[in-house]
Amino acid sequence: MKASSRKLIAENAPKIFFISILYIFTATVISEFQWRLPGTSVAIDRFLERVSEGEMVSFSLLYSNFRPSGAALAVVLRFMLSVLNAGYMSYCLKINRGQSGDYKDIFDGFLFFFKVLLISVVSAILVILWSLLLVIPGISAYYRYSQAIYILLDDPEKSVLQCIRESKRLMAGKKLDLFLVDLSFAGWYFTHLVVLWLLPLPVSFPVIQIWLTPYHTMTRAAYYNKLIKELVI
Known about the structure:
By secondary structure, the chain is mostly helical.
């Protein structure tokens, strides 16, 4: 899957890199704005300071320093990132299937904004609830519902619960496989973090991420295609 993804990236270069840059730049701007909202960065700094002083970690401790307006806008921006990510997944899925992708594809998620939003929220809640037990059940839950967005992209008429249930069915006995796929990119992400730490942002931003973003997303799209082909067979 990784080899086929590299081949597809080479075949669709340089266009795929320009589209990835557009996606990365837009997501970075939204993310930076999200954490620089009034009351947001200060709240996180105070939270970390109080935790370092020995206070128990809790949601109430984190949110006690948030400004309501800043926190509300931060949530909205978080949702926008989820929808933008769905659009980029759509683009990579099309390329993986030999279709022609375009710049507008990264905004496909906004065509069914509320379904993407609800899938993200419901999946996050389920992952959090499973994480209350232990870390491993939480990770397992994350992979259990990881295909819901792809299922929605394939059939936007499906309901949110249908997508989540079908993702659960697709990933039965397959969660470790996808975990190992993601784990195989750990060296790339570590290198990216090292480059970010060593070089100033304008220089470090494109060095690794412009390659890693389409590479990882294309490989995940290939994995989804593999799952649905196995289901048909």
